[in-house]
Amino acid sequence: MPNLDFYAADDDWSAVLRVVFDLGLFRVFEADSRHDHELREFRTLDEVASDHHGRHLQLLVVGAGPEPVAKRINFLPGIVDATFRYTCEGWGLIQLHYGGVFRDRELRWSHTNHNTEKRASAWARTVDHLGDPAAWDWPAVTSASGKMNRAIRRMAVGKVRSHPVLPHAAQVIAEANLRYEYGIGIHATPAFGVTP
Questions:
Q1: Position 193 pLDDT exceeds 70
Q2: I want to staple 106 with a disulfide (CB 3.0 to 4.6 A). Which of 18, 74, 102, 133 is the partner?
């Protein structure tokens, strides 16, 4: 299964990143570059952990496909104090995003996912700058993604519904009395208009 939504907080993210590097299956790229900078590849855990852009990553399974495409996004003048950024794209890239704590009242899901060959092939006609999806080794992408997801699940100390909860996330959930799961995470208060 390509998708995994899980709860992680603080040191949990470093533990997830350690798994990514220890598996030795991935090259790690930022999903979006800093404004007015090129897209970066992170080569060590320390590089990722110390960078805000290390919370949204694209993983390339080594030997499973072509180099990622660095798509330039130009900003309209006056909208932001920058002129461009890059986004990392590729049919067989695996997304790894950190949710974390939001305003001390919500813990958002962290997330992994990737395309399937069927989905990539269906979109290839409209997204032609990514090349041919057949250039990817889809079994290798799925296998590497599954290994990462299983390693994350093994770190869990519990679940909220079907979502694994990593150790520091469990502590945040308990200390902030987060009990209501909706939207993209777990909250201290119920959804607006819903009685508990």
A1: no
A2: 102
Is residue 106 a contact partner of residue 181, using CB atoms and an 8 Å limit? no
Structural domain contains residue 193: no
- Domain membership of residue 148 as a residue range: 4-187
Token pair, residue 115, equals 């395309």
Is the predicted pLDDT of residue 139 greater than 80, yes or no? Answer: yes
- Tokens read off for 11: 């040191």
Q: In DSSP terms, which residues pair with 96 in a beta bridge?
A: 57, 112
SS3 166: coil
Tokens 């290994």 sit on residue? 147
Domain assignment present for residue 195? The answer is: no
Q: At what angle do helices 11-23 and 138-155 cross, to 10 degrees?
A: 140
* Tokens found for residue 169: 């996330």
User: Is residue 70 situated within a structural domain?
Assistant: yes
> Is this model's pTM higher than 0.70 or not?
yes
CA 135 to centroid of chain Cα atoms: 23
Backbone angles phi, psi at 124, to 5 degrees: -60, -30
pLDDT at residue 191, rounded to an integer: 83
Reading the block at residue 110, the tokens are 């962290």
Is residue 192 one of the residues assigned to a domain? no
Domain count, the chain: 1
